Structures are given as C-alpha cells and as structure tokens.
Amino acid sequence: MRKTDLLLKNVLLFFKLTCLYAVISFGLCFATLAHLDNSVVLSPHSAPAQANATPCASAMASVPRAVAATAPSPAAALSFPASAMTGIPLDAKDISFSFDGRYCTYLYRSELKIYDIQSDKVIKAIAGSNIYRPVLMSDRDILLYCTSNKKNFYLHSYRIESDQDTVHKSLALSAGTKIKDMVYSGATGLVFINFSRVRSGIESDTIYCMDVMENVTKLSLSGVIDNMVILNGEKSMYYNDEATNLYLHGKPFAGMKAGRLLGRDAQDRVYVQSVVDTRSISIIEKEAVRSKFTLPASNFNQFYSDGNDLYAIYNDRIVKISGDAGEEMAFDKRLRFIGLGGSTAYFRSSGKEIIGIKWVVN
Q1: Measured between alpha carbons, how far is residue 273 from residues 62, 294, 302 in Å?
Q2: CB under 8 Å to 221, separation ≥6 — which residues?
Q3: Each residue of 120-179: pLDDT tens digit?
Q4: Which DSSP symbol is given to 36?
Q5: Using an 8 Å Cβ cutoff, are 348 and 354 in contact?
Q6: Contact 52, 329 (CB under 8 A)
Q7: d(CA 270, CA 267)
Q8: Cα(361)–Cα(344) distance, rounded to whole angstroms?
Q9: Residue 216 exposure: Cα atoms within 13 Å on the Cβ side
Q10: Which one, of 338, 333, 335, 304, lies nearest residue 321 by Cα?
C-alpha cells in the first residue's frame, strides 16, 4: 500500500507542476504578443497598409472655414510602401511624378531621366549639358523642358509613350541669363518662362509667354519675380515680387495687396498664403477673393501642388487644402516627402530609397 500511495502522490505532484507550467507559458505568450502589437517597426519592404484620412465636415465653400486638426492614430502613423524605387540616386534633382503615377522624371549628371515606376528602371535618358526645369504635365504623359547653347534657349516637349521629342520654340538671350521658373497651361498651350539675369549685383527678371503652336511674347514686367501662377482655362497670370506683393496682368491685384502665391487647383482657383498669419489661406476666383480658411496647425514644412490640387506637408501627415479640403494622410515622420503621382505619395525612406504609399481616404 505504501508503494501505491507514493506513486499516487507523485502523479498528483506531476499534474500540479504541469498545470502551473501551462499557466506561466500562456502568460508569457500573451505579454509578448501585446508588446509586439505596440512596437511595429517601419520596413521598406512590408505589405501596404491603409493610410489615415479624415474628410472635412464640409466641402469647399464660399464662406470662411477652418480645417479640423485630427491627430493620426498609431496605426496610421506607420504607413507601409506600395512600391519602392531603388534606382534613383540620392543627388537626383527636380524629381517629379506623372499624373497617372506611371513615371518619375529627374535630372542626374547632365541627363534627364524618365523612370518607369512599375518596372523600377530607367526607360529613357536625354543627354545634354544644359537641361533646365523639366515639368511633367498634370493631365498627360508629356514632359516639358528647356535646353540651351551659347546663343539660344529651346523649349522641348517629350511624349513618353511614343518616344517623340519636339523642339517648339527658341529664344536668343544675353549671356548669363538663366531660367528661374517655368509654368504651363495644358488647355491653352501657353508656357510662361521666367528668365533671370544679374547685372552689377542686381537681379532683373523677364517673363516670356510661349504659345507652343504660334509666337513668343515678351511681357512688360520689371524687377524680381518670385512666384508665378497661370490659369489653365484662360490667359491670366498672377505673380509675386520679392516683397510678396501680388500682381495680376502686370498690375497690383486689387483684392489683396500682399500674399504668397501657392498655386491653383483644377477649377482655376488660386490659393494665397497670408504674410501676417501663415495659417490663413485666401482663395481667388474670377479675379476676386471669394473665401478664406485656416490651416489646422502652423508647423507645416512646405506646400505642394501637382497642377490639380494643393497640399500642406507636415512632419507626419499631408493635408489637402483644395477640392475635398481636410482629407489627410498620416505617415511615419522618419520619411521625407518628395511628391505625389496619381493616388500615390512618394518619400525618401531611412534606407534612402524612394517608396510610394497609396493615398487611401477612410
């Protein structure tokens, strides 16, 4: 009987120890999973995640309104790439993206590169020692750019799909003249180019209006011109001087003395930032200030225009300020914003590659 009692006690002790071990193991697993859930680390090759976007309570209106500030959720603050471009050099310049998100263009070592995003490779390289201001059209896969030699500047258009490069116009300009800015209107076929020249330490700018199908017109302007915005549907040009005074058709704008031009949207509404309150944005339509609104926070890094819409770029989110104003996308603050193409936002990652994150409105 004693042997039987001893065996029974050993069995009961083994059972108790087994149960205790199971409880401890379960607790450790639960704690580990909870920790992992709260410590997601950005990986440039992870699967895409939904980006946070909070629609504004009302659409664009003709009365002042404020875009509500919404703090991004922890899940939205870490967005994962939908695509990665590994072949674009760190010192590439003038990086831009096509309206349909298919192509990226940039300048690198005296060459203009056209990069296919889907295949992750360069499909065209245009060589030239003096290539200036490449601009992708906002509604078609056509690239505008300028070249120069010792005597002339030339305006080119390059059709990506057909691999067709066309020289439209040439200008004879003085030595030392440089291209400062170039904007275009797809509807009117007009291209405005701001040429800058420094004489005796004083900068002087001249704007030429180039109709790609007809003639070149020199606008009678003087002084330094810092920003240009032209309308898509008509021959109208707004610009700033170096003191951020606002002009229309070469004359002071009657509706607003000063303000920093940000760009226009697809409906030809022009957006102007106040020089007094940097959060305050005025909207000009039909040559008059029609409405104003206030940005949710003043710590934005820059404004960005893709030719159809405008955005305020913060350290951890992009806020749309035109059209469906208030839509926003949160992203990891370790990423550096580059641009938008189609429904994708592009960033430099901590690994220095360019990644694309799909813009998804919840």
Answers
A1: 17, 10, 12
A2: 205, 206, 207, 239, 250
A3: 899 999 987 688 888 888 888 889 999 988 788 888 989 999 999 988 888 888 888 888
A4: H
A5: yes
A6: yes
A7: 9
A8: 12
A9: 14
A10: 304
